[in-house]
Amino acid sequence: MHGQPQFSMRPATVNDNGRLGLFIQQREAWMRNAGIPVQPGVLRVLSYVEAAGTKVMVLEELGDEPGREAELLGCTVLKHKVSKAGWMSAERRERAMAMEWTYSHPAPQYRQDRLGQLMTWWVADYVARRHADVEWIRSTVRSPSLGKLARERDGWQKVREADDETFAWVHLIQREPRQLDALRTLVATPTGLFGDSTGARRV
Q1: How far apart (Å, rounded) are the C-alpha atoms in residues 21 and 98?
Q2: What percentage of residues in the chain have a pLDDT greater than 90?
Q3: How far apart are CA 128 and CA 155, in angstroms?
Q4: Most buried residue, 49, 112, 139, 149, by most Cβ within 10 Å?
Q5: pTM of the shown model
């Protein structure tokens, strides 16, 4: 694919809190209607927007109309520390980051874009470029169907099932960071996020 990127990934700011909170609420309502287990995440995600050691990343669709607000299509939280719950002592000593609280737009017109996969690949690329010492990106999934999708489509490996810090039964998953140059034509990223000094880098 050539031309301008269709999407952008950028860190959320407090100015995003209103529409970000509404987006998460709408996504959780869709999940409940679909019978998917939901852990309410609005307050938790918004608390991470300015927290140390975390980045709330938002995925937006870039429009062609000047002055038009970009459509919010997804978000995820990237953390420098992984929760200890469920991970063995040896695994806790490995250098890892966490990708948590990931939400994507459920509208049918976006299914072919595989927004969850796109965010996962962006995080894998970002960690590989900016945190070369990190061995694993780790996450937890409550829904067996979402866990299966993450493994079969998005490149995650299932480690085990265990209780998380809230004593909920979850699937522990992980994947290796990996540079993915092909994303450059799909996703625009703000200058400096990847340590570059050129214009908005596409990664």
Answers
A1: 21
A2: 51
A3: 15
A4: 139
A5: 0.86
150 within 8 A of 142, measured Cβ to Cβ: no
Quick one: pLDDT band at residue 3, thresholds 50, 70, 90?
Answer: low
Q: pLDDT tens digits, residue range 80-107?
A: 999 888 899 999 999 999 999 999 998 8
Angle, helix 144-154 to helix 115-130, in steps of 10 degrees: 60
Residue bearing tokens 């679909």: 34
Handedness of CA 97, 120, 27, 49 (dihedral sign): positive
> Is 49 in contact with 3 (CB distance < 8 Å)?
no
With contact defined as beta carbons under 8 Å apart, do 9 and 190 qualify?
no
How many CB atoms are located within 10 Å of the residue 171 CB? 23
> Which residue type occupies 47?
S
